[in-house]
Amino acid sequence: MKKLLFTTALIMFATPAMAKDYTIKEISDPAGNNKPYYFEPSELTIQPGDTVTFLNAQDDMHDVMFISVPKGVDEMIMSPMHEKEGDKFSYTFTVLGTYQFHCHPHEKLGMKGTLIVGAPSKSGETIVMDHHKMGKIHDEAMKKTAGKSSSVADTGPQGTGKINEVDLQKHKINITHNPIASLGWPKMKMEFSVDASVDLSGVKAGDSVLFTLKAVAGEDYIVTKIQKN
């Protein structure tokens, strides 16, 4: 009996804790007594390997941009724009430390939050992600490609990366792309709509690809070409 208990204890000790899923809601309450726009919760502590989903709670414009991350993070963590209730963005955190994030449209209204993975970062262990500078480069690139004919758009900004998910029904792809210098984009995980003329049946999750982007209305890009790289 003692041997059985000892063996069981060893198995329990050797088995890593199960990863957990958390949800942070994007809240709009312009007439309320609280902040008009906020994350709920705005502070959260998780463990490495856990996943956080940012969920839009109303039909309103929100996104999530990580503006300060631990030095071990090699990509910009940023969601697509959430425009309707139920839109969401998920990210699995593996690097320990302190993460600061905000909603870009409501940055000046105090919509921000803090995420701690494992333990807080010590002084000098975080880096600031300059998304304002990135936004200026992005806007200039938008001006150059928006409204151009499809033949010209085929030579638009190009990127490489690995596909995370292909949504054939919505004709979208989720991809972790490498830095795209012409747009001022660092390495990011992003979701793109794909032009109706592009056949997505030839690519799948895990494929390394080369893709071409075209600016569309608003502040968005669609994929006009994609091929295995």
Question: What does this protein look like?
Answer:
With 229 residues, the chain is mainly beta. The chain folds into two domains: 17-131, Cupredoxins -  blue copper proteins (Immunoglobulin-like), CATH 2.60.40.420; 152-228, Copper binding periplasmic protein CusF (OB fold (Dihydrolipoamide Acetyltransferase, E2P)), CATH 2.40.50.320. The protein is built from three helices and 14 strands. The strands form three sheets. A five-stranded mixed beta sheet has the order 3-8-7-5-9, with no helix packed on it. Strands 10-11-12-14-13 form a five-stranded mixed barrel. Strands 2-1-4-6 form a four-stranded mixed beta sheet, with no helix packed on it. A hairpin with an 8-residue loop joins strand 1 and strand 2 (37-40). Mean pLDDT is 83; it is low at 1-15 and 149-153.
Subunit organisation of the chains: single chain
What is the name of the CATH architecture of the largest domain?
Answer: Sandwich
* Helical coverage, percent range: 10-25%
Distance between the termini: 58 Å
Strand content: 35-45%
The CATH C-level class name of the largest domain = Mainly Beta
Shape: globular
Provide the succession of SSEs: HEEEEEEEEEHHEEEEE
